């Protein structure tokens, strides 16, 4: 019922069904499915204690496009100010809502609410996971590259704290022959548990600290950049991997560049004009994937566990 971690998604079939629903809702003139009735009469409450632009708005607008309603509660204006526990706040919200979307600054905060009787969707929990961004990313890879089996994918940046990467890795392991190149400064390496997971799933991976050194060797099919999570680690960032014009010139002409946004210096705005930049497609896809997720949830299509 909930979506807390991408580890709940056990096979590609689930992803294929979600992406089929995404395409159907995106192209109602072809599918004949009218999105506007899929969440009619349903209320979503989005709860957050961290900044958010795309995740919050894409959920809110997805719900409206499905004919439902969405309200937002900022935890710093709630009774949390009077010392109320997260559990009591969320229990109250569950009495009013048909689905809850929670973005929280603490890893594990969403999992701690799994006894709620209303579906709860993790919209990012500290440096833990961000499953709906990862679903968006896999959908984008599939759309842009035609498939994911056998892809060589480079993930770069703050791999230690990037929750989008943590969720994405678990989904990529569902495909055959994916090879990952993990580029980050030493102190921002992917946490051990994800290396263990990749080993257990037999996913080949390579660890590197320099983006340009890596690109001189072999060009990946997709480069996924992430910002330095300065709110989670205060460090000297002179060694942070960045994709400049020079590095872009080293990529193959059919390689795509992705980023969950927000971005800082690691992906200059000027690169948006390059046809290989898929960042704005990711932004749009995020709304359609969330529409499909919510539509399945309200129409008993059994996507959510
Ligand atoms: C990310 C997040 O909040 O986890 N953005 C997003 O939701 N698309 C990335 C980030 O904060 O760096």
Features:
five-stranded parallel sheet; alpha/beta; 10 helices; binds N-carbamoyl-L-aspartate; four-stranded parallel sheet; globular; 305 residues
Explain how this protein is built:
The protein is of the alpha/beta class and 305 residues long. It contains ten helices and nine strands. The protein has helices at 12-26, 28-31, 54-65, 86-96, 131-145, 163-172, 192-201, 211-217, 245-249, 279-298, and strands at 43-48, 69-74, 99-104, 120-125, 152-156, 179-183, 204-208, 222-225, 256-258. A five-stranded parallel sheet has the order 7-6-5-8-9, covered by helices on one side. Strands 2-1-3-4 form a four-stranded parallel sheet, with helices on both faces. Helix 6 (163-172) links the parallel strand 5 and strand 6 (179-183). The model has no long low-confidence stretch (mean pLDDT 95). The structure holds N-carbamoyl-L-aspartate (NCD). N-carbamoyl-L-aspartate (NCD) is lined by residues 54-55, 124, 130, 133, 163-164, 226-227, 229, 260-261.
